[in-house]
């Protein structure tokens, strides 16, 4: 998860009315804007404002039934954001790599890369796989947005199965993807 998105999520959630809305929607019931305004004792435009902020961070979604819009809690998104914060906290600040770890990484890369730098096979062992993926990421820059085609071309320099490796970049939090655009996550967010 991109750090900026995580920060924005917690900024949006830092409001008492929005927390009350989340609690109401967590009951599993659907509520219209008017229902929510009545329950919280505020005016409908206030609800509209807070709901739009919650929709910006995908905390809620809406469904229209005839002329009425009902709001629902997006539990999956809330869990993702919570887990994103805990992932960062659990990893802490990246420590310095010891000489032994450096030699171990070099040995793994020698075993899995040809002299031309091509990946022989994707390692099965998770630790080795992560080392190889981090090596492949070296040519990509932080803060640059890449199209899926650009990511595929970059990966093809190393291995023909670009779709598997691209998927692994997302699964292991190396990159964030939205609407076909890829961006590097800070190293603190990478899985270890």
From TrEMBL:
Signal peptide annotation: none
HTH arsR-type domain boundaries: 1-93
Keywords noted in UniProt: DNA-binding, Transcription, Transcription regulation
CDD domains documented for this protein: HTH_ARSR
Keyword Transferase attached: no
Coiled-coil ranges from the UniProt annotation: none
SMART domains linked to this entry: HTH_ARSR
Transcription regulation as UniProt keyword: yes
Domain of life: Bacteria
PANTHER family cross-referenced by the UniProt entry: TRANSCRIPTIONAL REGULATOR, ARSR FAMILY (PTHR33154), TRANSCRIPTIONAL REPRESSOR SDPR (PTHR33154:SF33)
Protein name: HTH arsR-type domain-containing protein
Originating species: Sutcliffiella rhizosphaerae
């Amino acid at each position: 998860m991109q750090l900026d998105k995580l920060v924005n999520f917690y900024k949006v959630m830092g409001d008492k009315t929005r927390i009350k809305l989340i609690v109401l929607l967590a009951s599993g019931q659907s509520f219209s804007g008017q229902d929510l305004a009545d329950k919280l004792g505020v005016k409908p435009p206030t609800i509209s404002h807070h709901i739009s902020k919650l929709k910006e961070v995908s905390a809620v979604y809406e469904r229209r039934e005839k002329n009425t819009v009902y709001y629902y809690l997006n539990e999956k998104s809330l869990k993702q954001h919570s887990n994103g914060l805990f992932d960062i906290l659990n990893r802490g600040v990246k420590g310095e790599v010891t000489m032994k770890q450096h030699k171990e990484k070099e040995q793994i890369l020698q075993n899995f890369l040809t002299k031309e730098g091509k990946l022989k096979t994707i390692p099965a062992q998770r630790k080795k796989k992560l080392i190889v993926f981090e090596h492949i990421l070296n040519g990509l820059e932080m803060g640059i947005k890449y199209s899926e085609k650009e990511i595929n071309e970059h990966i093809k320099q190393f291995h023909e199965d670009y779709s598997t490796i691209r998927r692994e970049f997302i699964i292991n939090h190396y990159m964030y993807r939205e609407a076909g655009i890829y961006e590097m996550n800070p190293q603190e967010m990478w899985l270890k």
